[in-house]
């Protein structure tokens, strides 16, 4: 049994249809429980109630970066092995990643205003995140601008390679540039830097919930893309007849 078998649209539709209800249920349970648990946590002695924004901001920011990296992997699979499901999965993931990036930018601004005294600062991580959001928009626009699906997959695959630089910068900008206002990693294993368990455990749960939410949306949107391509092929066949 090979993993490439799931690149077959028929098998993908069958397997994804079976697991989708479980993923949706897990996403709803983990996300709602984690958010309610997180917002019931006590105020932080330094940040007050604004610390609770991490239960939205951190999971969204992590998913924004990792979704682009997932798109990079599926785009490479398309460019190397020409599996259509991988290209459609990359296309399906882009709007979800764009929304996650936007959530991270908005919640970051809400947190930054009381902490930094400004809604926006040209901090290295904020700037790279904004550029990543623009890459998401450009990626989706390029898919819509090119009529031939295979050509669109090729071009967006190349764009994904370029945008991956900013995805990595968004992840490691704090380490590269110490002069940025953005704090270090929220979750750290370094001695004396570990987040209190009061916040850490609900944050883990929301991170799992956001991941499962992405998987659910990815499966739904990929299945929709496959159906759309099948419909287009049937209409083209009828027109030729």
TrEMBL record:
This protein's UniProt keywords: Cell inner membrane, Cell membrane, Cytochrome c-type biogenesis, Membrane, Transmembrane, Transmembrane helix, Transport
Membrane topology: Multi-pass membrane protein
Major localisation: membrane
Positions of the Cytochrome c assembly protein domain: 4-182
Highest taxon above the source species: Bacteria
Transmembrane segments annotated in the record for this chain: 20-40, 60-80, 92-114, 126-146, 158-178, 198-220
Localization (cell): Cell inner membrane; Membrane
UniProt family annotation: Belongs to the CcmC/CycZ/HelC family.
Function: Required for the export of heme to the periplasm for the biogenesis of c-type cytochromes.
NCBIfam families the UniProt entry points to: ccmC
Name of protein: Heme exporter protein C
């Amino acid at each position: 049994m090979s993993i490439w078998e799931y690149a077959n649209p028929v098998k993908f539709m069958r397997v994804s249809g079976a697991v989708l209800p479980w993923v949706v249920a897990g996403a709803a349970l983990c996300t709602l429980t984690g958010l309610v648990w997180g917002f019931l946590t006590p105020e932080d002695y330094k940040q007050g109630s604004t610390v609770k924004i991490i239960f939205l901001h951190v999971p969204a920011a992590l998913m924004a970066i990792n979704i682009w990296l997932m798109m990079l992997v599926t785009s490479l699979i398309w460019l190397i092995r020409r599996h259509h499901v991988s290209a459609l999965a990359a296309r399906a993931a882009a709007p979800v990643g764009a929304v996650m990036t936007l959530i991270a930018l908005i919640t970051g601004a809400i947190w930054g205003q009381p902490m930094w005294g400004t809604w926006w600062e040209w901090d290295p991580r904020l700037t790279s995140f904004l550029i990543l959001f623009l890459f998401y928009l450009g990626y989706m626009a390029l898919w819509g601008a090119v009529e031939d699906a295979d050509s669109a997959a090729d071009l967006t695959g190349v764009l994904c390679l370029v945008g991956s630089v900013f995805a990595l910068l968004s992840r490691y900008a704090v380490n590269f540039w110490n002069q940025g206002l953005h704090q270090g990693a929220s979750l750290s294993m370094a001695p004396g830097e570990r987040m209190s368990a009061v916040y850490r455990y609900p944050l883990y749960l929301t991170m799992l919930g956001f991941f499962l939410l992405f998987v659910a949306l990815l499966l739904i949107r990929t299945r929709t893309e496959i159906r759309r391509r099948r419909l287009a092929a049937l209409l083209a066949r009828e027109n030729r007849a």
